[in-house]
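Ticket opened by: R.M.
Priority: normal
Category: complex prediction / small molecule

The reporter submitted a protein together with nickel (II) ion and asked that the result be attached to this ticket for the collaborator who will pick it up next week. Submitted input follows.
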Amino acid sequence: MRNENRRIDPALHTNYIARHDGVTMAIREILKLPDKRLRLLSEPVKAIDAGIRKLVDDMFETMYKAPGIGLAAIQVGVAKRVITMDLSKKEDDHEPQVFINPEILWQSQERAKFEEGCLSIPDYYEEVERPCEVKVKYLDLAGKKREIDAKGLSATCLQHEIDHINGVLFIDHLSKLKRDRVIKKFTKAAKSATTSSATKNVEA
Ligand code: NI
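Result attached by the on-call engineer:
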């Protein structure tokens, strides 16, 4: 998820990102609409091994660089139920959160509207109405079972990211007219990008 009001300067994240155990982190490519992989149902994580830890590290680096406040593994092409989030307001006070195999246990009847955006649908924002409170169970990076009662931005962001691991995008919560319009726009942009790179190949 992206939030224009919470833009983070990626340069300020150097200290957080730096690791001292020789593990190199990598920024992964973020899939964009209309990439079909964004519609996959992600698989539960069976074991939190070195591969998952590396995925989480890379997701944080990718998310901070974008910059965004939430990212689901499928957005970097990995169909596993892993989410990273950081809703901290200050650049120097990070609150990195990892949710593995998250499940919504309860959601409030009361709903709230937030203007949402998505790193997979760049520069497009629309108001989405969702339950304003959710209770979510998940595993942390150590494999410990946890529960969170999320409200406000945290609740919206969690629901947005859990949608991702179920192959759902925030535009699915909009009217068909709006959704069709944005899909058409991104499909057209993707096609013209392919055409122009094909042209370059011919020229070369
Ligand atoms: Ni998103």
